[in-house]
């Protein structure tokens, strides 16, 4: 970081050899399948995401985390090291660990914010969340997320509207190992795509565009004729080689266009 981290220290739980009630909540039933270091990462990440710990705040020391959670120093060190690699925190030798300053994702391809695009045109945007559930991965979804067929995944289905007219059907599957809190989010406040971009660091992205005909169900949801063609954008994102999400975004071809502008070196044009 260019600026010196703030020295405001975050209050920690009392020292005790036994895990506290707060710790018990972290290792509740849904989290028990996670490795211990992942539970520490999830605990710290949620505090940052919820705004309890802000940029520049000093985190508890390794020793304090060891005592608070009743786990080994090696486990805590791994959790902090991976948070540094993900850009969530910074560590200053001899001083401590701090919440990192917010910075934009750096990717080869950008993920467009549909809500912002629509509002910039002066139009009304609305997202209708139809489904948020835990389901079994089909063969196709399992292959996309590097999971076993039938393994548990999160699924969401949304309709994005511009001035009340559907312009995108978003059919998303999310790897619960990467985003364990996905299904408990309030997507009436922050739609799934924006939540993932803001809160789950990714370093690879894949876009594939196809021309397709909608199914009868898709045509009904998009309030269009099943004889009209659609543009299908399939997107996958990864973090350190592990898939985060695969999403199929279906657009009526008469209502939406997909496009990008790049320089000769392959970088997107700003603005």
From TrEMBL:
This is Histidine utilization repressor. Keywords: DNA-binding, Transcription, Transcription regulation. It comes from Acidovorax benzenivorans. SUPFAM superfamilies: Chorismate lyase-like (SSF64288), Winged helix' DNA-binding domain (SSF46785). Residues 34-102 form the HTH gntR-type domain. PANTHER family: MANNOSYL-D-GLYCERATE TRANSPORT/METABOLISM SYSTEM REPRESSOR MNGR-RELATED, TRANSCRIPTIONAL REGULATOR PHNF-RELATED. Signal peptide: none annotated. Coiled coil: none annotated.
